[in-house]
Design goal:
257 residues; alpha+beta; Structural Genomics Hypothetical 15.5 Kd Protein In mrcA-pckA Intergenic Region, Chain A; Alpha-Beta Plaits; nine-stranded mixed β-sheet; four-stranded antiparallel β-sheet; 8 helices; Pseudouridine synthase; rRNA pseudouridine synthase activity
Length: 257
């Protein structure tokens, strides 16, 4: 256990200009101080484009850019990012003049200036990401970065593997152009219904429902289970959780930050 002298010395060091690089990396979720020190000495860390291998190097994260293995280190204690499991008949908005249930009714007013990154239609369920980090939100929602989204859809009727493959290889033509799925796999089927897992990059409105509806298989239920590296997992409907720094870092890396 540190004595008063060591605590005072540490406080003095931390009050000097900048923050020790290994401490910054630990705060950003890269592991223990010892592990972060090893990353530095192994030559995996850059500051403003320059390789840094010397322990004890101090940086100013507000003015200097730090990268690990080429990926930018982003740390802001005021930023928060949530994964929320949206139930059916909840509006993907923070307020509604018609008085319908919204995302605000789930997260409350605990987090300042938080907003949703993308939407799910009123009758769809599953993963929505929320944040007060404007830069992250802008990148996640920008078509340029093509974040993969995974859905589990319950369809009316029995769809064949051949049709699934055609949706990936050829796609379908909708009112706003051709669209393909990145992946389509049958999970379960009966005479009257089929459950499929689909992956696509497009964030167009009601895109999964429109794709299957256009070929005669209306979607009875739609659940989004993953956005980029972030999974819905065991998160209960109508609840949310705060993403770990490691998860935020992986999401940021996915969208070029």
């Amino acid at each position: 256990m540190p004595n008063a002298y060591s605590r005072a010395r540490k406080a003095h060091e931390d009050n000097q200009e900048g923050i020790r690089l290994q401490k910054l990396l630990a705060q950003a979720g890269f592991g223990s101080r010892r592990k972060c020190e090893l990353m530095i000495t192994e030559g995996r860390v850059e500051v403003d484009g320059e390789l840094v291998t010397e322990l004890g190097t101090r940086v100013d994260p507000t003015h200097q850019q730090v990268r690990v293995d080429g990926s930018r280190v982003r740390i802001n204690n005021n930023h928060i990012t949530l994964a929320l499991n949206k139930p059916k008949r909840v509006l993907s908005a923070m307020e509604d003049p018609k008085g319908r249930y919204t995302l605000r009714d789930i997260v409350g007013d605990k987090y300042e200036r938080i907003f949703h990154m993308g939407r799910l239609d009123y009758d769809s369920e599953g993963l929505i990401l929320m944040t007060n980090d404007g830069e992250l939100s802008q990148h996640v929602m920008h078509p340029k970065y093509e974040v993969e989204k995974t859905y589990v859809a319950t369809l009316e009727g029995k769809i064949s593997g051949t049709v699934c493959r055609r949706l990936v290889t050829t796609g379908v033509q909708l009112d706003d152009g051709w669209i393909k799925l990145d992946h389509c796999a049958i999970i379960d089927s009966s005479r009257d219904a089929t459950i499929v897992k689909v992956v696509l990059h497009s964030g167009k409105n009601r895109i999964v429902r429109r794709i299957f509806g256009s070929i005669g298989f209306p979607v009875k239920r739609l659940v989004r289970t993953q956005i980029g590296p972030i999974k819905l997992g065991e998160l209960k409907s109508g609840s949310y959780r705060v993403l770990s720094q490691a998860e935020v870092r992986s999401l940021a890396k996915e969208v070029g930050l």
